[in-house]
Design goal:
Layout (H helix, E strand, L loop, with lengths): L3 E4 L8 E2 L19 E4 L8 E3 L10 E5 L7 E8 L9 H20 L9 E7 L1 H7 L3 E7 L15
Antiparallel strand pairs: 1-2, 1-7, 3-5, 4-5, 4-6, 6-8, 7-8
Length: 159
C-alpha cells in the first residue's frame, strides 16, 4: 500500500495527510471526471477539481474529485517527479522542492504570476514509507482558494 504526505502550505498552516492507491475513474473526452467521485490521490491528473475532506485526518486514501463546473476549492495543476537519488531526502527537502516546483509551474497553468493571483497553492508529497516501499516520487501541486469556491477550471483564468 502506497502512502503520501500532503503538506498544506497556506500562510503558516500546514497539515500532514497520507493516502493510498486504488483503481481508475470514468472521464470525458476532455479528461475531466464525469461525475463527483472519490479518487485515490495517486490517480489525480492535472486539471482535476478537488474537494478535500472536511476533517483532515492523518490517514486517508481518497479525495473527492468533481467536474470543474461544480463548486470546489482546489485543482491539480502539476505532477512533478522528484528524481534525486534513491534515499528518502526528508520532509524538509521535499517541501523545498515542492515549493519551488509548484511555484515554477503556477503561472504557466493559471496564466498570471503567483504574486498577482487570488489563488494559492499546496501540494502532496511522498511519505517515507511510500518512498521506500513503493518508489513513490511524485509531487502533486494543487491550486487552492481561501475565498469563494471555484465553479470552473482555473487553467488560463489569470485569477
Amino acid at each position: 500500500m502506497s502512502r503520501w504526505v500532503a503538506v498544506l502550505s497556506l500562510a503558516a498552516v500546514s497539515a500532514l495527510v497520507v493516502g493510498c492507491s486504488s483503481g481508475g475513474v470514468a472521464r470525458g473526452k476532455d479528461g475531466q471526471v464525469r461525475h463527483p467521485t472519490n479518487l485515490s490521490v495517486f490517480d489525480l491528473r492535472v486539471g482535476d477539481c478537488v474537494v478535500p475532506p472536511k476533517k483532515i485526518k492523518a490517514d486517508f486514501a481518497k479525495v473527492r474529485v468533481v467536474p470543474c463546473r461544480d463548486q470546489h476549492p482546489m485543482e491539480s495543476f502539476a505532477l512533478v517527479s522528484y528524481g534525486k537519488g534513491d534515499a528518502y531526502p526528508g520532509q524538509s527537502a521535499l517541501q523545498d522542492y515542492a515549493n519551488a516546483a509548484c511555484l515554477d509551474r503556477f503561472s504557466g497553468y493559471v496564466g498570471s504570476d503567483y504574486r498577482d493571483s487570488k489563488l494559492f497553492y499546496t501540494y502532496l508529497l511522498p511519505s517515507p514509507r511510500g518512498w521506500n516501499e513503493d518508489h513513490d516520487r511524485k509531487v502533486v501541486c494543487l491550486l487552492t482558494t481561501t475565498g469563494a469556491q471555484l465553479t470552473k477550471s482555473a487553467k488560463g483564468s489569470r485569477m
